[in-house]
Amino acid sequence: QEQLVESGGGSVQPGGSLRLSCVAAGIPFSGAAFQWYRQAPGKEREHVDTIYSNHTLTEYSDSAKRRFTISRDNHKNTVYRQMTNLNPEDTAVYYCHRMSHRTWGEGTGLLVSS
Questions:
Q1: Contact 6, 93 (CB under 8 A)
Q2: Could you give the CA distance from residue 70 to residue 85 in angstroms, rounded to a whole number?
Q3: Alpha carbon distance 4, 99 (integer Å)
Q4: How does DSSP classify residue 1?
């Protein structure tokens, strides 16, 4: 059974940084592409970034560029999301998703507030 478990969320002040993790199980990890989505309060879930099996090929949404970095460690079956210069508009639940599959994590929450 495929499973994704996110962690690393929490509460940070504006301008702060945070790293999210997504651990995969039951997935042929090295050949899979993964995505981060987020859902802010009262808004629809939106795609933020994608990392393909080739580590060097990533895609970022406009909101993620310059502030967020997605990476992966195939030895640890883990996808990371480093976020910097956070602002209150980044407050959301962040979800990990296996691209082109129905596998989603349950999400990890981020609150950016002073």
A1: no
A2: 15
A3: 12
A4: -
- Rounded CA-CA distance 93/9 in Å is 8
Contact indicator for 99, 32 with CB cutoff of 8 Å: yes
Q: What is the DSSP string of 60-101?
A: E-TTTTTTEEEEEETTTTEEEEEE-S--GGG-EEEEEEETTS
Phi, psi (deg, nearest 5) at residue 31: -100, 5
Q: Which of 49, 42, 34 lies closest to 89 in space, CA to CA? A: 42
Q: What is the DSSP secondary structure assignment for residue 16, as one 8-state letter?
A: -
| pLDDT at res. 66 | 79
- 14-73: pLDDT as tens digits: 999 999 999 999 999 999 999 999 999 999 999 988 999 876 567 777 766 778 988 999
